Amino acid sequence: MGLAAIQGARLAGAARIIAADRNVAQLPAATASGATDTVDAGEADLVGAVRDLTGGTGVDHGIEVVGKPATIRAAFDATRRGGAVTLVGAAGFTESVTLPALMLMADGKKIQGSVYGASDPARDIPVLAELALRGRLDIEALVTRRIGIDDVEAAFTDMAAGRGARSVVCFGPPS
């Protein structure tokens, strides 16, 4: 789960936040951002582990941030009947996800996309800034490193490899 999504779930009042990642090195950052439980998705059966943590029912709201058909399907399968799945990760235009049609109807699950948090910048940026100023939103936790313009290619390589959260480009010497 993305660190921004974890902080958003915490701000929304989620009592339990389960973060899963194939890169176990990312899980401590998830806990530091507010995850109450973590799952090593590289080792565990993700859906089974989430269902075990939720007493067999699944999560109320699954948030998928990778953008791969397998993780979209896992988020759907790990979400309880009547729950919602929000797709944040951007899948490729030619990628498809197969879901049983009867399950969509019978389980009453909702699937929705979210680009940039489905935000209204004029409304939401001042609210987010105020939350950050009051210490309720930890923006620094979202930044893995500050880089110069010459390091952008390496930052994209790290992102594709699942290393780090976000790199911020600083024009001038990185601080």
Which residues form runs of ≥5 with pLDDT under 50?
Answer: none
Overall pLDDT metric: 88
CATH architecture of the largest domain: 3-Layer(aba) Sandwich
Helix content: 25-40%
Helix and strand pattern: HEHEHEHEHEHEHE
Count of DSSP H/I helices: 7
Our Rg estimate from Cα atoms comes to: 17 Å
What distance lies between the first and last C-alpha atoms, to the nearest angstrom?
Answer: 27 Å
How many separate domains make up the residues?
Answer: 2
Strand percent estimate: 15-25%
Strand arrangement within the widest β-sheet reads 3-4-5
What overall form do the CA principal axes indicate?
Answer: globular
Give the class from helix and strand content and strand pairing.
Answer: alpha/beta
- Classified by CATH, the class of the largest domain is Alpha Beta
Largest sheet: 3 strands, parallel
Count all strands and give the number.
Answer: 7
